[in-house]
Amino acid sequence: MPERALPYRPHNHQACVSQALADARHICREHNARLTAIRERVLELIWQSHKPLGAYDILAQLGTEGHNAAPPTVYRALDFLLQYGLVHRISSLNAFTGCTHAGQKHQGVFLICRQCGNVLELESEPVARAIDTAAKTEDFRPDEITLEITGLCPRCRAGAETGTD
Amino acid sequence: MPERALPYRPHNHQACVSQALADARHICREHNARLTAIRERVLELIWQSHKPLGAYDILAQLGTEGHNAAPPTVYRALDFLLQYGLVHRISSLNAFTGCTHAGQKHQGVFLICRQCGNVLELESEPVARAIDTAAKTEDFRPDEITLEITGLCPRCRAGAETGTD
DNA sequence: CAACGTTTGCAACATTATAACAATTGTCGC
DNA sequence: GCGACAATTGTTATAATGTTGCAAACGTTG
Ligand SMILES: [Zn+2]
Ligand SMILES: [Zn+2]
Ligand SMILES: [Zn+2]
Ligand SMILES: [Zn+2]
Binding positions for Zn(2+) (chains A, B) (predicted)? Predict the structure, then answer.
């Protein structure tokens, strides 16, 4: 068994955050898109853990920071981050999580632990191929794929009460 | 190319409805569950087409029928129908669609046309296996799988403005 | 600086979903 | 049938999530 993925074990999460922010700055520069203060702060808040954050959670945190935030502020920042593939929306949770494959062409598969709430984003070529084949069988042309798997992460299965923040 | 699936071509949809209601009655009898008038009517409304229906759409239609309906009425009926696998919730649409595999153990894959709105529920063993393998690789135990594929159905690709109701 | 497009602030509103408690209905033993 | 009990439904209110529209502020470019 290879080493467990980051969300499932203690790790230097600050490194996750730094990497995400660096990627974001790079991607935005490449696209001539402005990673403004609010957008960057929202991304940073989303990355405060591997647990998806609701728009209103983000809003509440911004509220305690002097930013004069209303729902559109948050949703606009989220739209921007989604557009450039810096975050993903988890439909089954109405929440948002940082993309761990920013800048790479990828089709996210999300493993969502119902105990600790952490989410692991996978890339799976076999899954992508199987889905593509299934769609082709019906002559359907896929556009966007939402694949969210809820269950128990290894850490929670082992009995830990909560995962790493 | 085999014949297109029902939602993508004109078909005797009344047969879909009858089959769904018959299945529902059978499944409820088996489980000693009461398919009350409201529950049956909600199921029937959901089955009025292959396009998922929002809870408030259902509510509005009930409202025109003498039923004295409020949101909880609908959500409770939906909870019941979900519990017995008679309908599915489409997370990415916040809407509900009739299950076309009621009573069978299955893992739904939903093909959602962004043009006509029709949904086709597939069962795909290869997809299920690929997902299972991917989860196992991370030592994750799946519980519930949401797989929703948005795109263009064959009918809409061929230029028709709308699909069959 | 002036003009323009982008981003943000802000107020109101729309949509989706749930909580709490009372009233009604169905079921079962008597 | 009748009373007791559980399941279902009615009703009101409220929570949670997401959007519209317009005005002000900001950044860029000539
Ligand atoms: Zn981390
Ligand atoms: Zn967990
Ligand atoms: Zn049909
Ligand atoms: Zn279509």
Answer: 113, 116, 153, 156
Number of residues assigned to chain A: 165
- Report the alpha-carbon distance of residue A135 to residue A129 in Å, rounded: 10
CB A153 within 8 A of CB A114: no
**Rounded CA–C1' distance between A38 and C1, in angstroms:** 29
Last residue of a domain, one of A68, A98, A128: A98
> pTM to 2 decimals?
0.91
Residue A124 and residue A162 in one domain: yes
Cα B127 to middle of ligand 3, angstroms: 24
Neighbours of B84 (CB within 10 A): 18
Q: Does A119 contact B at CB distance below 8 Å?
A: no
CATH classification at residue A38: 1.10.10.10
> Residue B58, CB half-sphere, CA atoms under 13 Å: how many?
31
Expressed as residue numbers, the domain containing B111 is 106-165
Nucleotide nearest to A94 (CA to C1'): D17
Taking each helix axis as running N to C, give the angle between helix A37-46 and helix A13-30, from 0 to 180 degrees, rounded to the nearest 10. Answer: 140
Q: What is the pLDDT of residue B1?
A: 58
Contact between B7 and B100 (Cβ < 8 Å): no
Alpha helices in B66-124 (DSSP H): 71-83
* Model pLDDT for residues B102-121, shown as the tens digit of each residue: 888 888 899 999 999 999 99
How many structural domains comprise chain A?
A: 2
Buried b (16+ CB within 10 A) or exposed e, B26-58: ebbeeeeeebeebbbbbbebbbbbbbbbebebb
Q: For residue B97, which phi and psi values (nearest 5 degrees)? A: -140, 150
- Distances in Å between the alpha carbon of A102 and those of A26, A106, A139, A158, B75? 10, 9, 30, 31, 38
